[in-house]
Each structure stands twice: as structure tokens, then as C-alpha cells.
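Notebook p. 47: complex prediction with 6-O-phosphono-beta-D-fructofuranose.
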Amino acid sequence: MSVKRIGILTSGGDSPGMNAAIRAVVRSAIYYGLEVYGIKRGYAGLLKEEIEPMTTLSVGGIINRGGTILRSARCEEFKTPEGLQKGAAVLDKYGIDALVIIGGDGSMRGGVELSQISPVKVMGLPGTIDNDIPGTDYSIGFDTAVNTALDAIDKVRDTAYSHDRVFVIEVMGRHKGFIALEVGLAGGAEAILIPEVPYDLVDLLDKLREGYDRGKTSSIIVVAEGAARAEDVKQFLQEHTPYHLRALVLGHMQRGGAPTAFDRVLATQLGVFAVQRLLDGHTNEMVGVEGGRLVAVPIEYIQTATKTIDLRKLEVASMMAI
Ligand code: ADP
Ligand code: F6P
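Predicted complex, C-alpha cells below:
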């Protein structure tokens, strides 16, 4: 049966570019003669029937806005068999035959579960600053988050230099180190701690001392939240060195702000591609980009695959920190 009415929701941690993705899905669906219903607050709003028709005008003036006009949420009830059944019944009630889910790996898992109990055609779009979703080189929001964190680190470096200080800066990324590695490399960090690589704080201490012995007077250490807490690293270093240390947690500012051109273009291309895949009869997929090309993988792929980090970048960063 061909698709006539698409539902769209954003779920999990928001990310810059989600609005551009919503706009692309809504406008391309209408372009192809489909109807679109916006579902507010992710799976929570689905269960509460927070559902409204969307038009081309509903998505005007949002390509440049961070956050998500559909709002986002986390919903424990949707993880239960009863919650899933309820969600499927609501989609049926509204005549929604395809559901576009924009979110992180948890949100995609929700899509997998739904696809197993409902005839709705599920299409996922990777939207998370963490960039931890397999099946795509980039998720929507990662580039913006990296640039936001980098801007902050550049500013901190100015004051670190002026005051001869060591800053330990904690960035987001949940269980992965993609943001830390990228901003650490781009920001010229003296050290980068990520969850993918075991580290020893004594080695970090030695590295810091060696840098000071060579004449360094300030340093930036980037820590992924999944690897360590900035405060703990700072405490350890402070106990063993005379340097002036500060810890800084960048936090949720990394999730906000206007999306970069890269994220807007990625979101727009993926949104249109998602609708085209549905119209071509594909279902239960996640769209992404690999090697510069738009791709689609079975949505179950996110359950079996793991996204690996390019550790050569860590070696390069280490080489630059001498
Ligand atoms: P993200 O999508 O950013 O990774 P979460 O991991 O918090 O964020 O997941 C977002 C939401 O997706 C959860 O609150 C829940 O509603 C839904 N979800 C996650 N895992 C499952 C699952 N196994 N089954 C059903 N729904 C799930
Ligand atoms: O998944 C996005 C993310 O920002 C992670 O980087 C972080 O660990 C988490 O969400 C924070 O979640 P919350 O908004 O619930 O504090």
C-alpha cells in the first residue's frame, strides 16, 4: 500500500538541525502530494495524542533555528509492550501509515520495536550531537555541537594563556568520544580523554609535566563525559602539581544554537531522501550519509552495529601536542 499520510516526531536529546530536517520532510512530502502530521514531544506526545496537521507554512523560518519546533522528550512508557501497542493504536486512529523519527540511537530503537508490532512504515533520521549512530558518518547536530564547543575552547585558551592555567574541559558525547576527539584536535588540546581508549591519569600527569619542562605555560585537556569528570581529573592533577587548574563543563550549550551550514544541508538532504525512500516502497530503514553519498540501512542495523571512532585522529592530536 502506498504512503498517504506521514507522521513526524523528534525524540531524545535535541540537536541543532532537527528543525531543518522537519522542514525538509514536511515540504518534500507535500511536494509529492502527501499529508503530514506533526507529533509533539516524541513518543510521549504520540501516547498523549499531541498530533496536528502540518503545512508548508508550519515550517517557515525554522531552517536557521536550533532546538525542535515539535519539542522533544524521553518516554519510559513507550519502552513497555503496552506503551508500544498504545502508540501503534494512535497511529492507526490518525490514519498515519508512515512515521519519520528524528533522534538518537534510543529513538531509533523505539522505531525498531514499533516496526515489529505495527504495519506503520518506519523511517529514521539520525539526529544527535553525539554522532554515535552506526550507519551514517554524521548525525544531524554533530557539526554544530563541535563548532560550539570549539568556540568555547578557543575562548578559554585565551584566558588560560593570560593566567598560566591548565583547563580541564568536559564535553558531551554520552558513551562515545566523537565530540571530544574532534574539538580536541581542532582546538589544539594538549591531551584528549575518550571512553574508547583506556587512559592512566599518571601518564596524563607526566605528559603535562613534560610540556611544562619544554616551556609550556598553559594547557587545555579535553575530556569526554563518558571517559571522566572534568572535576575529578582536575583534582587529581592539582594534588600532584603546582599548576593552577580549573575545570569546566560545557554542558547543554552544546545542544543549542543555530545549525551550521553543514548540518542544515545534511538535514535537508536526509529529510527529502527519507520521504523519497518511503515513496519508493522502502520501510523500516534509517537514512544516513557515508563517504559523501546518501545511504539507507535497515533500522535494526543500529542494534547490531557499533560506530567506531577514527583513532588515527587521536595519534595526530598527540603528535601535535609536543
Ligand atoms: P536518544 O534518542 O537521543 O538516544 P534516548 O536513548 O533517551 O535518546 O531515547 C529516546 C526515547 O526513545 C526513550 O525515552 C524512549 O521513549 C524511546 N526508546 C529508547 N529505547 C527504546 C526501546 N528499546 N524500545 C522502545 N522505545 C525506546
Ligand atoms: O544524547 C545527547 C546528550 O546531550 C548527551 O551528549 C548527554 O549525555 C545527554 O544527552 C544529556 O541528556 P539530558 O538532556 O537528559 O541531560
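Notes: Residues 144-256 form a domain with the Rossmann fold fold (CATH 3.40.50.460). The chain has eleven helices and eleven strands.
Next step: compare against the earlier run before touching the bench.
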